[in-house]
Specification:
Helix content: over 70%
Number of helices: 8
Strand order of the largest sheet: 1-2
Strand content: under 5%
Number of strands: 2
Shape: elongated
Largest sheet: 2 strands, antiparallel
Order of helices and strands: HHHEEHHHHH
Oligomer: single chain
Distance between the termini: 43 Å
Structural class: mainly alpha
């Protein structure tokens, strides 16, 4: 997650600048940096999910969301596919949770309202319509910080889920390998009720 790591340094940089100056330019830069970090993380998490589950396990809607290109019957189309920031976070968790027996749902809690407020604050300076809406107050900064903490907490849970999924598969493969080594390939297949072709039986029993 190289991109998000670099962008998080920007967040820290503007945090320090705001302590030395109350200028609006640094406050707006801080808000932009915070959401650049969040957007980068979201993209990187999509990439992790795609590499973890691939086209074989993800359905058309999931593939469309992950790749941001509309899929239909397992094939790409020319249409773009986007979800809002909050919908993206929810969908990312839903995809991984579906492979993890519904463990560790997205933590919303009280801070979920602050997250939505933070997005509105970001939108006011990235898509400004009135001059008064681009002013970033102390309360706005407090909300952005809470949204960042919320996101980082959920990011940690998300990565834990993904690591747990991979560990489960690795442990399963280790057990299979151990059984084959102990029983021999032929006996292992017989126990599973499977037939073995002659061309591999001599090599692995």
């Amino acid at each position: 997650m190289k991109t998000s790591s670099t962008l998080f340094k920007d967040v820290i940089f503007f945090e320090k600048l705001m302590k030395d100056s109350r200028k609006q330019i640094w406050r707006r830069a801080y808000v932009r940096a915070a959401f650049a970090f969040i957007d980068a993380c979201t993209y990187e998490l999509k990439d992790l999910v795609f590499k973890s589950f691939g086209t074989g396990l993800l359905n058309d809607d999931e593939l469309s969301f992950i790749t941001e290109i509309k899929y239909k019957k397992g094939a790409k189309t020319k249409k773009k596919y986007y979800l809002s920031t909050t919908k993206s976070w929810e969908y990312l968790f839903d995809i991984v949770i579906s492979f993890m027996c519904n463990e560790h749902k997205l933590i919303k809690g009280e801070n979920w309202k602050d997250v939505k407020k933070a997005i509105s604050i970001r939108n006011n300076i990235t898509h400004p319509k009135k001059h008064k809406t681009i002013k970033i107050t102390d309360e706005h900064i407090f909300i952005i910080r809470k949204a960042l903490l919320w996101f980082i907490d959920n990011l940690q849970n998300f990565l834990f889920l993904l690591a747990k999924y991979h560990k489960k598969n690795i442990d399963h493969l280790r057990k299979i390998r151990q059984c084959i080594e102990e029983e021999g390939w032929t006996n292992y297949l017989k126990r599973l009720g499977l037939e073995e072709t002659e061309d591999i039986s001599n090599d692995r029993s």
